């Protein structure tokens, strides 16, 4: 799963059958890379979302026959990119910082 921000809707009048009735959204990751995802939850531009990919993306749409490899799994209620804890050097999984927060 990854976290992305919705930047807009992708409108396509001609689609393959496996995507004919899917809402498509344009997403941007924190580095600015764009991606297109199917949207079963009804997002709006500006929403932060988490995505599921691969076969999990098809199942998240409710039908494994839908031709997608990236699906929006949910809208994040409260999160800002600045909120992500940065691990300290030599702390590859952030456990040291989590331990400090719990001890405080």
UniProtKB/TrEMBL annotation:
Please provide, in alphabetical order, the Gene Ontology terms of the cellular component aspect for this entry: bacterial microcompartment
Highest taxon of the source? Bacteria
Gene3D superfamilies, per database record: EutN/Ccml
Provide the protein's localization: Bacterial microcompartment
This protein's UniProt keywords? Bacterial microcompartment
What coarse category fits the chief subcellular location reported for this protein? other
Record flagged with keyword Hydrolase: no
**Stretch list, region Disordered:** 81-104
Stated name of the protein = Carboxysome peptide B
What organism does this protein naturally occur in? Halochromatium salexigens (Chromatium salexigens)
